[in-house]
Backbone:
C-alpha cells in the first residue's frame, strides 16, 4: 500500500465516522432543528472527507474536478433542503401557536 | 477483497427489500414517498454493483428524482383538495381491492415464470452485441441496443410518455391548482445557482451517450429538472397560448423517431435499419429530439394539467396566471 493510498483510506474512514455520528444524531436528538444540524454536518464534512480521499485515488484530473463538483452540489442541495425543512417547521410552529 | 464486497451486496439487497416493504406498509404518505426515494437511490447503487451504470443513471434520474417530485406534487395537491372538499376520504371498494390484488399477483407470477424460464449464466447477448457494434454507428453497446438493434422497444417507451401526458391533459382539464408553497430567498438562490449546472449536466449526459453510459432518457430526465425548477420558482408560468408549442415538443421525439425509422426503408432496408454511413448522425438526431420531448413531457406531467383559460375570478386574484 502506497502512502497516498494510506492517506486516502484514513480520510475516507474519518468521513465515515462523521456519517455515523450524523446518523446517531438524527436518531437521538430531541427535535427537528437539532436533527438537521447533525445531518448537515454529516453531509458537508463527512462527504467532503470521503471526496478528498477518493480524489487522491482518482486517475485523471477530470475525475478530480467531477468529484469536487459532486461534493459542492451535494453540500449546496443539502443545505438548501435543511433550510426548507427548518423553515417549514418554524412556520408550522408559528401557525399552531397563534 | 471479494468477501467484503459480498457482505456489502448482501446488506444492500436486504436494505432495498426492507425499504420497499417499509414504503408500502407505512400509513404516513409523506414518509412513504421519502422511503420510496431512498429505495430508488439504493436500487441505483444496486444497478452499479451489477455493472449496469446506464440503468443506474436512469433509475436515479427518472425512477427516483422525477418520480419522487411527481409523488410529492401529487401529495400536495391531494392534501389541499381534500382539506377543501371531502373531510373523510372514501374507503376503497372491496372489488377494486380484489382486482388490484389479482393483477399484482398475476404480474408477480408472470415475472417469476419469466425468471424461472430464463437461461442461467452464459454470455447472454454480449457476444452478439459485440459482433454487431461495428455496424451500429455508435461506440457504446447500451446505446447501440437501445437506438439501433432494439430501436422499436425504445420508440414504444417514448410513446408511453406521450400517452401519459395526453391522458393527464385530458383528465385534469382546467382544474385549478393548489396554491404553490412559498419557498423563500435561499431556495431562489439555489435555483439560480443550479439551473445552468443542470442544463450542462443534462446536455452532457445526452452527448456522452454514444460512447459511455448516458443517453436520451437520463439526459431528458435531468433537463426536466430545469422545468421543475422554473415551474416551482414561478420563473415560467404556463399560459394557454403556450399549448401549441408544448404539443409540438411532446410529439417531436416520437414523430422524428418514427419518421427516421420509416424514411430509411427503401433499397431493400427494413424500418430502423439505418444506412451505416449515416447511422451515427441519425442516432444523435433521434436522441437529441427525444431528449427534448422527454424533458418537456416530464415537466408537463409535473405541472399536472393542461393550461386553459379559466374564467376571470374576482379582480386582483390573478386567476389566469394559475391556469
Residues:
Amino acid at each position: 500500500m502506497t502512502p497516498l493510498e494510506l492517506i486516502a483510506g484514513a480520510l475516507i474512514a474519518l468521513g465515515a465516522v462523521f456519517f455515523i455520528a450524523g446518523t446517531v444524531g438524527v436518531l437521538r436528538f430531541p427535535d427537528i432543528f437539532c436533527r438537521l444540524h447533525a445531518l448537515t454536518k454529516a453531509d458537508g464534512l463527512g462527504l467532503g472527507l470521503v471526496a478528498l480521499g477518493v480524489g487522491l485515488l482518482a486517475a485523471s484530473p477530470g475525475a478530480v474536478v467531477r468529484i469536487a463538483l459532486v461534493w459542492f452540489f451535494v453540500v449546496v442541495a443539502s443545505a438548501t433542503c435543511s433550510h426548507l425543512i427548518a423553515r417549514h417547521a418554524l412556520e408550522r410552529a408559528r401557525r399552531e401557536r397563534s | 477483497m471479494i468477501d467484503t464486497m459480498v457482505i456489502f451486496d448482501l446488506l444492500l439487497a436486504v436494505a432495498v427489500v426492507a425499504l420497499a416493504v417499509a414504503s408500502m406498509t407505512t400509513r404516513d404518505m409523506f414518509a412513504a414517498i421519502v422511503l420510496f426515494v431512498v429505495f430508488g437511490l439504493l436500487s441505483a447503487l444496486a444497478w452499479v454493483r451489477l455493472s449496469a451504470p446506464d440503468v443506474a443513471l436512469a433509475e436515479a434520474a427518472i425512477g427516483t428524482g422525477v418520480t419522487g417530485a411527481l409523488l410529492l406534487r401529487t401529495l400536495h395537491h391531494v392534501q389541499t383538495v381534500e382539506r377543501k372538499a371531502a373531510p373523510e376520504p372514501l374507503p376503497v371498494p372491496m372489488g377494486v381491492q380484489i382486482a388490484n390484488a389479482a393483477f399484482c399477483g398475476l404480474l408477480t407470477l408472470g415475472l417469476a415464470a419469466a425468471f424461472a424460464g430464463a437461461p442461467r449464466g452464459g454470455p447472454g447477448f454480449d457476444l452478439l452485441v459485440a459482433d454487431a457494434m461495428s455496424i451500429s454507428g455508435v461506440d457504446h453497446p447500451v446505446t447501440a441496443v437501445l437506438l439501433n438493434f432494439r430501436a422499436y422497444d425504445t420508440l414504444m417507451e417514448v410513446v408511453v410518455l406521450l400517452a401519459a401526458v395526453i391522458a393527464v391533459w385530458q383528465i385534469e382539464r382546467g382544474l385549478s391548482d393548489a396554491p404553490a408553497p412559498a419557498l423563500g430567498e435561499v431556495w431562489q438562490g439555489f435555483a439560480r445557482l443550479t439551473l445552468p449546472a443542470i442544463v450542462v449536466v443534462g446536455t452532457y449526459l445526452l452527448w456522452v451517450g454514444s460512447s459511455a453510459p448516458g443517453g436520451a432518457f437520463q439526459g431528458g430526465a435531468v433537463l426536466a429538472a430545469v422545468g421543475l425548477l422554473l415551474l416551482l420558482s414561478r420563473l415560467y408560468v404556463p399560459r394557454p397560448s403556450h399549448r401549441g408549442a408544448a404539443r409540438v415538443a411532446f410529439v417531436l421525439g416520437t414523430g422524428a423517431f418514427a419518421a427516421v425509422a420509416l424514411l430509411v426503408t427503401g433499397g431493400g432496408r427494413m424500418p430502423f435499419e439505418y444506412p451505416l454511413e449515416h447511422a451515427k448522425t441519425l442516432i444523435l438526431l433521434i436522441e437529441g429530439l427525444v431528449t427534448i420531448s422527454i424533458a418537456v413531457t416530464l415537466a408537463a406531467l409535473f405541472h399536472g394539467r393542461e393550461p386553459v383559460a379559466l374564467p376571470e375570478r374576482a379582480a386582483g386574484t390573478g386567476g389566469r396566471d394559475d391556469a
